[in-house]
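note to self: dont lose this again. the chain is below, predicted strucutre after it. 315 aa total, dont forget to put it in the shared folder this time
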Amino acid sequence: MKIKTEYKIGVIGLITILVLYFGIMFLKGKDLFNVETSYYAVFDDVSGLYKSNYIYLNGMKVGYIKDINMLDQSGKKFVVWIAVSGDVKIPDDSKLSIFSSDMLGSKALKINMGISKTSFEKKDTITSDIENGMIDQLANNITPIVVKLNSVMTNLDTLIVSVNNVMDSKTQANIKASMESIKNSTQNIEHITLNLDKVVESERNKIKTILTNAESITNNFKENNQALTNAINNFSNISDTIAKANLGSTITQTNLSLKSLSNILKSIEQGEGNAGLLLKDDKLYKNMESSTKKLDALIEDIKQNPKRYLKFSIL
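---
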């Protein structure tokens, strides 16, 4: 019995359709030889979820999304219909969460297994959850920074506009002139400091000599302390004698002498007379040094020959 050509074509077409169907199902990730169990989950937001997206359990693919539909016309709730391998038992305290499956932010579903002893039945609704991935957390952290940065940029722009309004050509010229004055003042201060250093350097030897002479005089006074004590005692005796004398006329004469001395000092201060000229003459230092040396020699001679200068009498 011969099979008609029409039957052959029909059988070949049916086989082709079956192969095409199973091929498409396979490409969608559906296991055609494994029994599937359907569940539902309700989400407020399904951004990034699509039909045929995979469902993971501890990183392993155990199912896929069969369909996504709106629960109401307002679009506030969405029902996700999933298919999970029949050999996976999901405890009834488990959760189904949306997470980022790669660095690009692609979304998928993940089963967070619970610890209950009882499992969900076919077509039960699993509690839903949303898990923020690294990209989502980074976006959440960057958002407030971007808001603050925008505020800072706005304030900076306002500040720049204000500065531009204030910094007109006249103000800029004034600032430039002020900076030039400051520069000149700094240079003058440096010049004065340099001259002062030169003066101090040139007079250093003179200052050192004066200090050396002063130290020598102090040492001589220290070494002749006993002689000076005797002289002071003699002066005390003289003072007692003076105290017994009439001091009225002496005080009057002293006042007159002080007035005269004041006039003399005033004249000297104004540079009058020889004494005034002496104060303003550069030879003062040389005379002072010479006098100091002579005084030093005199004290040394007093030390060596005190009887030549001091005579004591006992009344």
